[in-house]
Amino acid sequence: MRHVLKLTKAGQMFLVKDALQEDQIQFLNTINNEAKVRRSTKSLVLGKAKVMSYEDLEEARAKRADKEAAKEAKGKGKRGRKRKSAALEADTPEPNAKVNERSASANESLSSADERNTGCGR
Question: Which residue windows does the record flag with biased composition (Polar residues) (predicted)?
Fold first, then answer.
């Protein structure tokens, strides 16, 4: 009989300790999650180091939002030097038409030269 009482008391103690450990683990997880959120949020500097009223904070937030919107609208600048060929292409709308005309006239002159050469050789 004593052994049964001892076994039941040990079982109860195990269940109580297990429940307390689970509660402690859950508590530590919630604290850890709060710390993760705090570390992951970006801190915004709204103004100089001074005491600000709520209206000042709202005004600073609005100014910052406008500034970020202007920065987004401006876009990201290209790195490096501008190419001269890109500037020339913007000035001349159809450079390919001139090239095609030149190649056509060159082909005509070559074909006429071939005819002359073949005719003279016979």
Answer: 102-112
